[in-house]
Structure formats: C-alpha cells, structure tokens
Amino acid sequence: MSQNSPSQPWRLRYISEPMLKLFRRVSPAMSQTEREALDAGSVWWDGELFSGRPNWKKFRQLPAPTLSEEEQAFISGPVETLCQMLNDWDITHERSDLPPEVWQYIKDNGFFSMIIPKSYGGLEFSALAHSSVVMKISTRSITAAVSIMVPNSLGPGKLLLEYGTEAQKNHFLPRLAAGAEIPCFALTSPHAGSDAGAIPDYGIVCRQAFEGKEDVLGIRLTWDKRYITLGPVATLLGLAFKLYDPDHLLGDEEQLGITLALIPTDTPGVEIGRRHLPLDIVFMNGPNSGKDVFIPLDWIIGGVERVGEGWRMLMECLSDGRGISLPALSTGAGKLASRTVGGYSRIRRQFKLPIGRFEGIEEALARIGAYTYMMDAARTLTAVALDRGEKPSVISAIVKYHLTEGMRQVINDGMDVLGGAGICLGPRNLLGRAYQSIPISITVEGANILTRTMIIFGQGAIRSHPWIFKELDALGEEDPEVSLEKFDRALFGHMGFYFSNLFRSLWHALTSSRFVLVKAKRPTRRYYQHLTRMSAAFALCTDVALMTLGGSLKRREKISGRLGDILSQMYLASATLKRFEDQGRPREDLPLLHWVCQNCLYEIQKAFDGLFQNLPSRWNTFWLRWFVFPLGQHFKAPSDKLGHQVAQLLISPSEARDRLTDGLYIPDSVDAQLGLIEDALHKVIAAEDAERHLRQELKDYTPDYHGLEGLLAAGLKQRIISETEAQLIRDADAARTEVIKVDDFAADMT
Description:
- The chain is built from 28 helices and nine strands.
- It is of the alpha+beta class.
- The strands form two sheets. Strands 1, 2, 3, 4, 5, 6 and 7 form a seven-stranded mixed β-sheet that branches.
C-alpha cells in the first residue's frame, strides 16, 4: 500500500476494490479510435454545464467577440468586392462552377489562407474572422462559401500547421497561401461513411524505385474515396489510410494505424477529377482513388514520427469544420431569411393586409428571427473559445448539429412564407439554393443523426464529466495499486458529486431556483438561475443513466440523444445570454432573448420528460421525476404575444433588425433581389399612412378595371390625399410588383 495514499485501507478493500471490479465489468469496451477521439480536444464550458453549478461569473467575463481592424477591413473590402462579383444563378445554373475571374480573385486575395500565418504569406485571421467571412459570402453564394471554407478548415493547411514538419510547412504553406496549390482532403470511403475509423483504404510499407532513385523506402497506397470537396480541381490531396508494415521495415509492429499523407494529384496512379453533383449547389466535389500508388515516407504529414497518429490528428482538427465553417454557413442562411422573408412579409399583401400581420405568418417569422439570434450567438461564442486556444470537441459537435438543424428550420419557414415564389428557381429566388443546400450541411462533418445520438452526449459524458474520465483513466493503469488508489479518489469524488447534485436538484426545484446566487440584472438573472437548476438535474440524470445502464448506454441512442439535447440547449441558452450582455443589453432585443431562452428551457423540459418516460427502470423514472420536477413541469413554450413582438422586428426597419442581420451582404443595386426588397420595404412603409387614410375615408367608390389608378383618382377628386401622397402609393405599388415577380423562362429554358 502506498504510504502517500490519503485513503483508509478499509475503504480501499471493502468499497473501492469491489467497485473497481464492477466498474471494469460494466464499462463499455473502448476501441483505440474511440479512445483517441476522447483524448482529442479540450473541455470548456461544457465541463461547467456538466458540473451542476456553472460558474456564471467566469462565463460572463469571457471577452466579447471582436474583429481586428485588419479583419474588418478585409470584410469591408475584398469580401464585399467578391460578393459583388458573384452571380449565384450564373454559377449554379449556367456554369456549374465559379467563373475563372472569381477563382483568380479568391486566390489572389488570400481567401484560401485565412488560417495560414503571415510568416508563410497567409492572412492569419482569428476564428471569428474566418467565420464572419464565410458567413457573409454564404449569403450571396453557397458555392463560393463552401469553396473557400474547406481549405480553411479540416484539410492540408490545418494539418500542416498543427503537425507538419518544418520542411513540409516551408514548402507547402506559402504555395497554399498564394493559391498555387488547391487542397482537398480525402477521408470518406464508400464502405465506411460516418464510421471513419473503419476506412478500408490501406498502405503497405515497401521499397521500390521512385523518380529516378532505385531503392526508396515508402508506401504503396490503394484507396477509394468519395464526397471530397474541391477534389475535381485539387492539386494537393490529403489522404487518410491504414498503414501496414508486413516486412517490419519500420519496426516490430505490423499494423501501424491510421496515417495521413500529402500527395500531389499529378502523381502517377492518382485518379481524380470527376464530379459529384450535390443538389445543384454545384461546388466542386467528387471521388478519387488510386491503386498501388507509391509515395515516399516523407510525404506522411509530420514525417515518420506521425505514423499511426492520423485519427487523433483528425479529431483534434475537426473542431474547425464543426465549430466554424458549418455554423457560419447556417447563420448566414438565418440572416438572409430574416432580412428577405421579413421584408417580403411587409411588402406582400393578401386580403388588403401585409402577410406579415397574419398570425400564422407571425409564427414562422418568430422562429426565423429567434433561431437566427440564437445561431449567431452560438457561432460567435464558439469562435471566441477557439481564439482563446480551446479545442472544444463537444461544443463543436453541438453547434454543428443544432445550427445546421436551425438552418433547416428557418429556411423551411421562409419557404412556407414565400410560397410559390420560393419553389420557382431563378435569379429572383434567394432561398431556393439555400433550401437545396440543407441536406449537404446536415450530412457533412458527421451526419446529424450520428452527431446527436452518439457524439454530443456519448463523447461529452466521458470527456466533460468531472469524474468519469478520471475513473476510466484509473482502469488504464497497469500497476494495480496505482489503479486502485486513483479509482478510489475518483470514486469518492464522484459520490460526493452525485449526492450534492441530488439535493441541489430538489432544492432548486422546490424554490424555483430563486436562491441561486448570480450577480446579474433582470431579466437575465432568472435565466441564469433556471439554467443552474437544469445543470444540476442534468448531472444527476447523467449519473443515474450511467450507473443503471452501464455500457449498454452506448447503444441506447435515443436516451443518449435526449441527454445530449439537454446539454445542447443549455449551451445555446448560455450563448444567447452572453450575446445579449456583450451587445449592451439593448432593450429592443428583449423579445429575441426571451423567445430563445424560454424555448431552450421548454426543450430541456421536453427532453427530460422523454428521458423519464423511456428509462428502463420505472423506479428510477419515479424518483428522478420527483427530484427534478417535484412541483410539475412549469416551463412554457414562447407565447403568441412574444412571437408577435419578434415578428415585428423582422418586418420593420430598426436597429434591432440591423443587429440581427449584421454581416449579411446587402447589395446597393435594385438589380439584385435583396436590393429590390430593401428599396420596396422603405417605399411601402412610406406609403402606408396615406394608403390607410385613403381606404378609410374614401366614399361611394366601387373598384373596377382601372385598378390602383382609379382608386387614386377617386381619392384625389375627394381631396383625401395629395398628389405627393398619390405618388408615394404609386411608387410603393411598383416596387411591390417588382418584388413579388417570379422568374419565368422560355419553353426550352433558354
């Protein structure tokens, strides 16, 4: 027995040792790839949400998201210019590609080098700037946004920065920064899909002649990949494969594990260049393959020292795609829907009333505005974490899943409001391509079903829980005494954690969280208090689920999905509160804040209810429900009145509407549909008083074929309106007519 052990011998012998044996028996078997995924990344605010008592003071002291002057100048300059160059209909319908001049502008202005340090010729932007650039471009062309975001997320550039040798960095990074190389990364295999750790692609360590040299130590590769973005135009291929050394040329091991390499696409045997067609978004995406392609060992990313570390490398770098690019794309869609559908709802009339005044339309507008507010909050908060050096793998999975699902919601709502104008593609349709892109965002970087049911809680329960990872770590100790002592400390720490959350959950529930100490003003204080209560209840239910289901929880995806929903909604509510605080607590934004926070709490309550109904033990269901909701379930969905207030923000020009859609590309010209909507919105509002007065005061008038002009003539004759007011009404009607037009084409579509 170690003399330094703080534990009593009886405790070790009669409690911890039997529990350790039980824990070994019920703990789920963990593959090497699962272990590496858990070891990758860092624990951030997700750890606080797992704690049962989040440190709100620490959270509120996080810096507000801020762009540097250089980053803001880039967005106001080259990004604005690029957006002006983009014609989405021409790109998607006519060319099925970006125009050559756009490709060149992207390369010349460093759009592929946002993550590359200035010492290598890159822009060296923050994660927030990277996100803001992708978001703005996506509101003009998703094709262009995807083409730019991929080289700046999971790909050769990121992997070289993190793991490349100095020689690899010095050679490739300046070329990537200058656009001399177009990179892609090949991970997905037809027979592996989301189970990337099961890729069948392989490499054999061998010797053979290469580029004039007779005996080169290298790898003979065979692979078949698909869904590779930028693949058809790439000059530099990043490849993931399993490496084998049957002749022991590198050491005693034969199976060396997943390894990553960089391969110029003109290497003999590389088959690349064909295209997939992702739902008419037509960004460059396609398959590639190779059979017995020989590469030297120094093409391995990081050199021979990184052999077998590929899976960990991928997991550590995956947070950028999940945490930056896809949330930016989703938030851009929300901002575009908020601005366009909101404006359209005020402009478009049915039954002599703007459709935005109909309560059914208001429901859709409320969701569009509130979800956009929430998505932007989560996007920027996650970027702040990444810029502080965090690698929050669980948080990145949360924002990937919930923001792409949020995009699905806001675009579907927008399409419902637009009706026929939304389903007819053409230059005037601003949401059609966004609608087509939804399944793409939901599928890439891990399919959303998998992300929700297996990753968010499955990874978070072990990685973010304050004690479980320590208990599992104790199991991995080879020395039995060290293993027992470490497990003992973790076990009793876990027991204290469990009982504190047990009583904390009940106390907060009985007192409606009113005694949770949070130094915040109304109205945010009550939300902080309720989230603390939910955090304690979540920690309690997590422990009960793990204790009662053990390793089988890994297969109970519906239960883990609901637990993941609770964790996710707590994070989304936290981000929304932080955004409200960072922006100076503007009173005009209160409807957005209230709608999001009330909806998050309601969704948390629903997830708890679904969990209680489906736990296999009815006894656990009974007492957990009593401890978490002893006085009943009192969180309500946002009210109709609150939804009305949110909808009003979208259909009326205001500072709140501008804040909500900040970062959206708004063209100056009325030649573009969004420019038309902006112009018409102001004209319609300017004419509303005169038109209302005319319709209310006009007497003895029967509408006829003269239409608007007949109405105006009658109003002028009865001196109800002036000629100036009549012209305001004419201008508004003309602008409205332009906005509601739908594209049509010749019968042969020319």
